[in-house]
Amino acid sequence: AFTYAGEPEPHFKFSCGRAEELLREYLPTKLANVTYEPAKCASLTIALSEEIKHLVKQVTPPRYKLVVNVTIGNKSKDETVDIVVTSQCLWDPHSDNFTSSQYVNETLFCVVLVHAVYFE
């Protein structure tokens, strides 16, 4: 039977803290030994997006849809990396949420955004 819920119950809200903790643990395991190569990183962003979606889904309450955005870029040894990543969408601040994480090694930087949108 279909049940309509306009917003999640308080104990069923998306936990940004738990998702961020998972990302902080996950990113170094996948990127610590990766050297930036444009073609390799293009396919890596796709794989990371899928893996992160499945990882975060394990701690995501019912009725939430996840949108994962992964950005990987070159970090030159001679230069400082300055990047601004922004995202904008229309959502309900009482039920929807997002978290982000970043990782940097000798040759690359990675920024991950995870949006959790409550689906009625």
What does it look like?
- The chain has a 3-stranded antiparallel beta sheet with strand order 1-3-2.
- It is 30% helix and 25% strand.
- It has one domain (16-118): 2-Layer Sandwich (Ribosomal protein S3 C-terminal domain).
- Helix 1 runs antiparallel to helix 2 (38-57).
- The protein contains 2 helices and 3 strands; from the N terminus they run H-H-E-E-E.
- The radius of gyration is 16 Å and the shape is elongated.
- By secondary structure, the protein is of the alpha+beta class.
Summarize the structure.
The protein is an alpha+beta fold and 120 residues long. It is 30% helix and 25% strand. It contains two helices and three strands.
Total E-strand runs: 3
- Assembly category: single chain
Count of structural domains: 1
What is the terminal-to-terminal distance?
A: 14 Å
CATH class (first level) name: Alpha Beta
CATH superfamily: Tctex-1
| Number of alpha- plus pi-helical segments | 2
| Biggest beta sheet summary | 3 strands, antiparallel
The parts where pLDDT drops under 50 for at least 5 residues are: none
- Largest sheet strand order: 1-3-2
The CATH topology is given as Ribosomal protein S3 C-terminal domain
Family: Belongs to the dynein light chain Tctex-type family.
GO cellular component, one term: cytoplasmic dynein complex
GO molecular function, one term: dynein intermediate chain binding
Protein name: Tctex1 domain containing 1
